[in-house]
Specification:
745 residues; single chain; binds 4-O-methyl-alpha-D-glucopyranuronic acid; alpha/beta
Amino acid sequence: MTVRVLLLSAFLVLPPALTAETGYNAWLRYAPLDEAVARRYSEVLPAAIVTLSGAAPIQSAQQELIAGIRGMLGRNLQAVSGTPAGSAIVLATLTELRQAGTPFVLIGTLPADGYWLKTINASGRRYIVITAANDRGVLYGAFAMLRKIALGESIADLDEKQSPSVPARWVNEWNNLDGTIERGYGGRSIFWDDGRSRENLDRVRDYARMLASLGINSCAINNVNADPRLLGSDFIPHVARIADAFRPWGVRVALAIDFGSPRTLGGLDTFHPIDPAVIAWWKFKVDEIYRAVPDFGGFVLKADSEGRVGPSTYGRTHADAANVVARALKPHGGVIFYRGFVYDHHMDWTNLKNDRARAAYDNFHELDGTFDENVIIQIKNGPIDFQVREPASPLLGALDKTKEAIELQITQEYLGQARHLVYLVPMWKETLDFDMRVRGGRTPVKKSVSGFVGVSNVGLSDNWFGNHMSQANLYGFGRLAWNPDLSARQITEEWTRLTFGNDSKLVETITRIQLSSWRTYENYTGPLGLQTLTDIVGNHYGVAVEASERNGWGQWHRADERSVGMDRTVATGTGFIGQYSSAVARFYESMETCPDDLILFMHHVPYTHVLHSGKTVIQFIYDSHYEGAETVARYLREWKSIKGRVDDRRYREVLAQLEYQVGQAMVWRDAVSNWFLHASGIPDSRGRVGRYPGRIEAESMNLSGYVTTPVTPWEAASSGKASRNGALTITFPHGKLTAPPPLAA
Ligand code: GCV
């Protein structure tokens, strides 16, 4: 045997988890299974895979099964079309099966997009039938089958029906036509570049495949802060190209629109929603889109919010605005998601009765019953804006005669962006399971919604998000949209095993880190319902406790020298709590029952207020920050303990991300704790805050060439000062450090 052959066989027997991976295939890696496991599956899988139609999603299903089974089991299925001559995997809709006749006729019904996996034994042949009411459902069934194999579940005698919890499972991509992404952390847009659709849409196809694997059936491909140019006749062919790339994966394209378009784009002198010319313009525009994209999904509209125009320009209601567009979409079966994220960002902060949290309910509740049936109100999970912790939005469940969708943010805008590991499924579960106690019974949020919308914002980075672990948030969103009853643990274990492999220590470690990471992040960035204490008027990333105050944006925590928190009670505060059903309102109104996690979201209390945990508010703030930072340091150790069980590239990349997060968590810890020490004057009972033995402040070193400057916000640097500008030598009490000059010096 030559050296080259020896090397080749060594490579072939390497455990799959150790080959370098970019993360591009996310949870669709189809890595080879353990030989014994693979053998068991091979014994029950027929050798042929049959389709009964040429429908593109069913063809995709066939290709996906062939690739997946080849990858996991090393078997090459034979692709066949038409009625099978022998044992086979059969991919067909229920109608096609009926047409094929005995033994394929299955008696039963399925809702759109649901699937049925069924083993049929007849005349000594074995068929694994993957069927559904529509083509897309067959594709979802194929992905479910592959997931079963990857997770080691039995496929020996199948009879499993599954259908999605809601018909609308959408993602929104806040992509701008120039290729940038608002609040996107995984690189530039996969859709747009330089004012047009990207030449190469391979990434779009691969993204659609990922979405399909989760049952996501529509994707709005541009920023909700929408560019009106997108509806231009010269632009629609670009949208159609993207729709073509999505179609084989059953994903419909959708667009975010600007409500002023009849004027800015259409040349009318108005965008008044009941003006006949405006009504006609929307109809003309929508008809034009459907001519180019017959399976177009619909629109998302952000109106009267954060500077976007809306019906208020003409003193009209949100229902007027939604309905004019809805009526244009209706003949084509399209829907409009009208965003409930409407608020005034110029509120008078000195008025203690003002409250941004009230806005969604105040703006929409009274309009219930006035929206057309193809309007869905898209409501963020919390009443503010994707903060680290918020209660469920009171608008969820408050619309009895109007469809509503929950909007969840997959991109981690206020949650560490791509740089902190923060897994959001436990947070989303809390909202989805929260019982709004409306309509006289148990009404968890998940039962009130007829749509799920995830703000995903994937980009061109190899792993789509700029952080391997963030992929779990898209996975979790899709799985919850399909079935919100799945537990966070089940989703996490599934994702980990599909993404990193079945090694039990690895699965246990990654699952443990992911499941606790939201609480950890909350501990060091905004506990007790303070919300994320970040620069709310800037990039929403670093620590800036004061940034929330003294401006019109309404993300106030109202911390002063004695007390902290927003009084949202009915008795003395903004009355926000009164927007909930009486049972929920009673629970939040009383400090006896209000959970510690939300106490400062609902109440303004002295720093010395004693929580249910027995700690004072101020001590809790100190302790949680230390605990959060310590837990991130533990994540790093835990990650190191699985070295060799994860492929080298992803191991190193997550390691680097965690190392960075350890440092950032300390910066947050010290900044927030010091800020509250400064504000309250109450020392940390454990003597940590403001005392850092062994720490040498840069500005107290003997620096040559550096200039000491104050930092804003002051709490973001120890002692409120930093040293900058290019000196090379630092002399400090224990020695000397020589550093290269900064690049920008
Ligand atoms: C797309 C927050 C974000 C904005 C975003 C807005 C929204 O305010 O910071 O970037 O705009 O929410 O959801 O419309």
